[in-house]
Amino acid sequence: MKYVDEFRDAALAQNLARAIAAAVEPDREYRFMEFCGGHTHAISRYGVTDLLPSNVRLIHGPGCPVCVLPVGRLDMAIALALTHEVTLCTYADTLRIPASAGLSLMKARARGADIRMVYSAADALTLAQQQPDKQVVFFAIGFETTTPPTAVVIREAARLGLSNFSVLCCHVLTPPAMRRILDAPAEALALDGLIGPAHVSTIIGSQPYEAIATVYRKPVVIAGFEPLDVMQAILMLVRQCREGRAEVENEFTRAVTREGNRKAQHLMNEVFELRDEFEWRGLGTIPHSALRLRESYAQFDAEQRFALEFKAVADHRGCECGAMLRGVKHPRDCALFATVCTPESPMGACMVSSEGACAAHYTYGRFRDGEDHR
Amino acid sequence: MNVKRKARPYVRPLDIANGQVDMSHGSGGRAMAQLIGEMFLPEFDNSYLREGNDSARLPAEPGRLVMASDAHVVSPLFFPGGDIGCLAVHGTVNDLAMMGAQPRWLSASFILEEGLPLAQLQQIARSMGRAAREAGVTIVTGDTKVVERGKGDGVFIATTGIGFLPEDVEIAGDRARPGDRILVSGTLGDHGMAIMAQRESLGFASAIQSDTAPLHELVAVLLQSGADVRVLRDPTRGGLATTLNEIAGQSGVGMMLQESAIPVRPAVASACEFLGLDPLYVANEGKLVAIVAAEDVDVALAALRAHPLGREAAIIGMVQEDPHQFVQMTTRLGGRRIVDWLSGEQLPRIC
Question: Of the residues A6, A54, B22, B47, which has the maximum number of CB atoms within 10 A of its CB?
C-alpha cells in the first residue's frame, strides 16, 4: 500500500526506537499523553510500547468522540427515535454505548425504533430527501474533524428547504478538553508532554495549541495516526524535554499547517456557535467546549424542533471511564475491566469504540496484564 | 424434491427470460413442481433426484459418516468470482473437507422471495450444478419455499452435506499442541473484500475476486503428503483471527503469529484500510488453516504449494503453551499484540 506502508516500516521503526533510547535520560520518567483515540488504537494495534524504553510511558487521552459523549446525550437520541418516532441516523460506534434504563441505540432499534447506521452526514440528508413524510435526525458527534461535514449538510438542507431534516448536535472542541486535562493537579496526573491530534489539527491547524504549550509549559507534538508518526512524535517530545522547551511542533506536516483548513473553519463558523457549557463524560462540564446551531439555522436544530432537554445522568457506579478519560487510571485499574465489562457487553463507553482506551487494551494488549505495568 | 412423474395436462413452459418467482412457486402445487422440474432438475440432474421421492436413498460406504450444514444469505447474490449458488456448494463441501472427509451428497433448500427474476434463479441453479459437479458431490434432495416480497432478499440457500471419513484420519479442533506450526493455504480476506468492494462501489478494489472454491482436493493432497495434520479449518466468517481463537480454545493452547508472514493481496489490504477493516477478520471461502506437527511443516507446505489452490500457502506462526489461550502476534513493526475474537458484526451478509 503506497503512502501507508512507509509509515509502518519495521526497519524505520527500529531506527526510531534506537534514537528514542539514545535520547532519553535513563534516570527519569517520561509521561506523555496521546490525546486521540486514533493514536491509542495505533499504539495498541502495532505494539508500539514494545519498542519504547521502559521509562517512557504513554497515557491514553480523552480524544474518542464516542467515549466523551455523556449518557444524557444518548438518552436524548434514544428519546428522538422511540418517543418522537423519527428516523435517527448515527455513526455505527454509538449503537452499543449503554444508556439509561438498560437501553442503548441498538436495543432501542430492537424495540422498533427506526435507527439507521450511516457512514456520513450526507447519507442522512439523502435519506431525508427520500422519505419526505418522515422526520430524519442526524446524531452528530465528534471533534472538529467531523464538524465541517455536518455544517455542509445543514447548509444544504437549508438550500433545499427541507422541513423534515434536523441535527442533534453534540460536536465538541479539542482545545478546551486539553486545557481541562492539564488543569488537573500534578499529583493526580503529571504529564511531560502531549501527542497532539492528527485529523482534528488538519482542520484547526497547530496554532490553537500554542497558548496551551506556553501557559502549561508542556510540549505538544502534533502527530499522524500511523505507528511511525507516533514514534517520531515521542522522539520529538523527549528532545523538547531534554532541552527544556515547551513548544508546539508538527510531525504531521504532510497534512497539518499552522492555520489549518480555513474554508472548513469558515463553514463551521457560519453554521455553529459556541455553547455556554457542555457536559463531557469524565471531564465534567466545560465552558465553551462544544457547538450548537446558530439562530439562523435553528430550524435544523433537533433540540429545538423536538423540545429536547439534556438531563445529566451518573455513570455506572463501578465504571472508571471518567478516570480513564482524564488519564488518571489505566483500564487494568478498573474492577469491571475484562470481568463484567467486555466488548461484547460493555458497561462504559471506553469499551465500546475501537478508539476507547479499554477496548484497545482489551483487544490488543491485555496479555500484558501481569507481565509488566506499562 | 417431490416430482411426480405422472402424465399431466400440457403446461406452458416457465418463462425464464421474463418471469418472476411468485407465491405459487412455493405452494406445493403444479407451479412448484414445474419450477423444480424445469429449473432445478436439469441443472442438478442425477438418478436420486429423478426418482422424485420425499428423500433420497443413498448407498453406504466404508468409514465414518460426516455431516455438515451451512445457510447462505449473501448480498449481493452475484459478486466478482462467484455467486450465492456456487458459494452454497463450496460452504458445505469445505466444512466436510475440514474433517478430512470425502464429500459425497448434498441437500439444497431454497427460500425464494416473491419477485425474484427466474433468469437470476436459473443462473444461480446453473452455478450450483456446475460447482457440485466440479466438487464431485451430488445434490440428491432439496426443498423450495417462497416468502412474500420484502420478507426475503432474493434467495437464501441452505445446504447440508454428507461425506465419508476413512478410519485412520483424525483431524479435530482439539488436537493442536504447543510447538505445532500454523499454515494458511493462501491470501486472506479476498471473499469478504470482493463483496464489500461491490457493495460500497469501491472502484479501486473492483479487481478483487472472491476466492470461493472447494477445498477437499487440497486437503486430500495435504493428507497424502504424510504430514501429521492436527487441525484443519476454513476461516470463513470472522476470518483467520476468529478461527484461530476457536482452535486455541478447543485445544487449550495459545498461538504466536508473525504479521509479516501472513499473505494479503495489496488490493485487499488497501480496501481494508479504506473501510477501516482488518484483513485478519475478513471472510474467506476458499482458504484453509492447517495446524501440523513441527517436524512435518516443510512437507505440508510443499504439498499445499504444489496444488493450484495452495500456491500462496505460508507458515504464519506456531502453537504455544498459554493458560490464557491468547492468540498473539508479532506486528510488522516488531511489537506484540493480541489477535482477539471478532467483536460484534464486522461485515453482515457476507456468505
Answer: B22
Q: Is B333 in contact with A8 (CB distance < 8 Å)? A: yes
Least confident of A123-137, A269-283, B21-35, B244-258: B21-35
Total domains in the fold of chain A: 2
Both A255 and A335 in a single domain?
Answer: no
- Model confidence at A373, in pLDDT bands (50, 70, 90)? very low
- What share of residues in chain A are helix, strand, coil (percent, to 5)? 45, 20, 35
The low-confidence residues of chain B, meaning pLDDT below 50, are none
Clarify whether residues A274 and A331 are in a common domain.
no
Residues A333 and A309 in one domain: no
Helices (H), chain B: 30-35, 41-44, 47-51, 84-97, 118-135, 190-199, 216-224, 239-251, 266-275, 297-306
CB contacts of A45 in chain B (<8 Å) are 331, 337
More confident residue, A186 or A137: A137
Residues A218 and A346 reside in one and the same domain: no
Does residue A206 share a domain with residue A62? yes
Closest partner CB to B335 (pick from A4, A50, A96)? A50
Q: Distances in Å between the alpha carbon of A65 and those of A59, A202, B216? A: 17, 17, 47
Assigned domain for A328 exists: yes
Whole-number pLDDT of residue B100: 96
ipTM above 0.85, yes or no: no
Nearest alpha-carbon partner for B296 in B220, B221, B229: B229
A98 with A232, same domain? yes
pLDDT value of position A374: 42
- Cα gap B6→A315, rounded to integer Å: 71
Closest residue on chain A to B259 (Cα): A46
Q: What is the pLDDT of residue B6?
A: 59
What pLDDT score does B343 carry? 76
Residue A202 lies in a domain: yes
Q: Number of C-alpha atoms within 13 angstroms, CB side, residue B323?
A: 1
pTM of the model: 0.87
Res B2: pLDDT: 59
Considering the domain boundaries, does residue A373 fall inside one?
Answer: no
Are A68 and A26 found together in one domain? yes
- To the nearest whole Å, the CA of A86 is away from the closest chain B CA by 22
User: How would you classify the pairing of strands B78-79 and B82-83?
Assistant: antiparallel
Nearest to B199 by CA among B349, B89, B91: B349
Report d(CA B283, CA B70) in Å as an integer.
15
Cα-to-chain-centroid distance, residue B77 = 15
Q: Which domain holds residue A92?
A: 1-317
- B289-292 and B229-233 strand pairing: antiparallel
Provide, as residue numbers in chain A, all residues whose Cβ is less than 8 Å from the Cβ of B336: 47, 50, 367
**A50 burial type by CB count under 10 A (0-12 exposed, 13-18 middle, 19+ buried):** middle
Distance CA A219, CA A229 (A): 16
- Are A333 and A254 members of one domain? no
Distances (CA, A) of A149 to A63, A271, B233: 19, 11, 44
Neighbour-count burial of A236, counting CB atoms closer than 10 A to its CB (0-12 exposed, 13-18 middle, 19+ buried): buried
- In order of their start, the domains of chain B are 23-165 (3.30.1330.10), 181-338 (3.90.650.10)
Residue B76, preceding peptide bond in cis (omega within 30° of 0):
yes
Q: Is A144 helix (H, G, I), strand (E, B) or coil?
A: coil
Distance from CA of A290 to the nearest CA of B (A): 27
In three-state secondary structure terms, B166 is coil
Tell how strand A220-222 and strand B102-113 pair up: unpaired
A371 part of a folded domain: no
Distance from CA of A174 to the nearest CA of B (A): 23
